Amino acid sequence: MKRRGQRKLHQLSVFRSIKYILSILLAVSAYQSTSIAAEIHEPMRPYWSFEGPLGKFERASLQRGYQVYTEVCSGCHSMDLLSYRNLIQPGGPEFSEKQAKAMAAMFEVETGPDQDGEMFMRPAILSDKFVSPWENEQQARAANGGAYPPDLSVIVKARPNGADYIYSLLLGYKDAPEGTDLDDGVYYNEYAKGMRIAMPQVLYEDGVEYTDGTAATEEQMAHDVTTFLTWSAEPKLEERKRMGFKVIIYLLILAFLFYFTNKAIWKDSH
Amino acid sequence: MSDSKPVTRRNFLFISTAAFSAAGAATIGIPLVSQMNPDASVKALASTEVDVSTIVPGQSITVLWRGKPVFIRRRTEEEINEAQKVKLEDLPDPEGDDTRVQNPEWLVMVGICTHLGCIPLGNKGDYNGWFCPCHGSHYDTSGRIRKGPAPTNLEIPDYVFLDNNTIKIG
Amino acid sequence: MSTDYEPKSAVAKWIDKRLPIVTLFNGHLMQYPTPKNLNYWWTFGGILTFCLVTQIITGLVLAMHYIADAELAFSSVEHIMRDVNYGWLLRYIHANGASMFFIAVYIHMARSLFYGSYKEPRELIWIIGVFIFLLMIATAFMGYVLPWGQMSFWGATVITNLFSAIPVFGESITNWLWGGYSVGSPLLTRFFTLHYLLPFLIFGLVILHVWALHVPGNNNPEGIDVVQGSQDTVPFHPHYVVKDVFALIVFMIVFAGFVFFTPNLLGHTDNYIQANPLQTPEHIVPEWYFLPFYAILRAIPDKLGGVIMMVSAIAILAFLPWLDTSKVRSAKYRPLFKQFYWIFLANFLLLGYLGAQPAEGIYVIISRIATIYYFVHFIVILPVLGFVEKTKPLPKSISEPVLNEKERAAKAASA
User: What ipTM does the predicted assembly reach?
Assistant: First the structure.
């Protein structure tokens, strides 16, 4: 039983503890938001099936997203960390081996040298990395007015607000307000830093004819390609969350067992 | 007598805790050991598909499979007959030619001498097959050891004919 | 610890006769008399040992796949994440493990500060601890460089450039460190080597740390001396082995939460961009556990001054046993010290927040005030407090506070 004075001191330290926890949370949130300049709009927050502790990718969306990447984005953006075999593995778009081989064969890779010491081209196979549109960074810059279209393999993890940001950016092209000064090759985008970006709008309604017949609205394409890019950045997402669920349940049970074991051991010591 | 019940309950608690912990500890070992197994990029190169459409009878090619040389030879009628006529008693490592090939016209074998690992030379040796220059092992037209220090015949890898023109090794 | 323990099995006897590790193990980890009133703040030593072992083991297996070359480092880490069996798991455990390691060490240090565990006769335990902390900082800093992302590269550039502030020899020392004229592959390779080495030095210091602890025995929440082997102590096994493991499991639940559900929350998105020597990120931010010291570094307008103050902020900890002049150990019996303790903690958290802000405007002013206060706490407040503070009367033994309550309850019942 605590005396009144002691209770008051206890209350004060509880109050202080809450203050410190709040300041910790503040520090974490401030740390997270440091990278976003004050000028950018907060991104849109659409529904993502892969968010949350039980999140999963929608296979169909991943497959459509791959189609959008290949038909729209791959003209300028490489995905150097992906291989064609990744398209088959569980947790991803899960194309069949036959489909993936056919998709790979649409691209050519340089290989060799042959008997005469010459390099030559051959169709890509599953074990090859995604073919880049460029030989090197200089070529990419030269073709894009000095700006380098970044590799997209981990772009979703490389930008604050990840998927929300990419989605918003793709849909963020608006007419610049009256009197806005835009250089050549710079476009107005509500979600880009300083409202300016060197990439033009690329998603237009029906720009892609989806093989599964889904209507290719701008939002649909943005959603699908962002889902695909999230998978590309985190191919093990589903396995990770599945394992996490089991691990936490196991640890909770173990904590429960150890709590009572501890209680039993200390019973006679107080 | 009266405190045997709480004591057994206590023992049950301790034993379950220990067992549950041990299960967890053992599971931790799985990723630690598994990470040393061939990873996905290595396994992707575990099989090699070879286009054999341009190989004429009597011609051999060598391809790289899992870091090792593989001889693919399109045998002539003569070589096939020679291989099939050999008596098993004459072989240091008895193996019929029919067990070494899926299609008698095509001989697919790992080109590493079973003695100490050198690469035998084709169209050489006393048996019209291969000859290993390192220590003088002679292999016949079925890749079987006939003379020399090598203990066993040249290894036949797993392979399938995906179609008439393509062999998938491994 | 001298006990009457005799090894039981024949094998144990045979070994113990030649190398007394069986009696050592028994004396220090099983029968070891430990104060019976330790609370959960005392479980973090065991938790820290778990963190060290986890980092060493995951680090070891990651090193089987990582390539310490500027061209290949980033993609080798991605290779681990994508292709190596369970590579993603090992990487996320190792990266989040570093954060968990620092959470635990800050709590462990906070415990010592509150309960006066650094005071006589435990000064050397504390000082060894300060060296462990320094090695941890060095190890974590080098480890963060290895993935060779933008933050890896530019964080390395900022911090290694600090060496050029040293008068006369600064530039040569910096080039010697770099093995070149800027951060690049030579620095990366040597950081990998040292990052692999230092944890084993930490392990050695931890052994000295525990050895030094076992001379006087553990402190306790009352801060008073405890007679070893009396009714005020319990054997370490099973009482504290089980309690430590319980606390560890709760810790692991938090750890698992990070690893499996928010593995990149404590990191920085810029580190998923490959290092580019021609492009500096907008805000170069170190990992969260360095933020308070980073704030101190930036608060001083002079480059060399900033370096000196940042290093002093850690070095001053080593002098704590002498700066704190109070004869009373535990803040439980030091009401005025307790207030200043919480203020110090709040100031430290404030410094951490400031370390993540851009170094402009009001942030600069507050950082300077907070930095000054940090040093004032050690150099002015603690020494003075020991003389002017009116401490509460200490209990005669650690069982006494309990008895007093019982006596009080008996009185109230009879009233």
Answer: 0.92
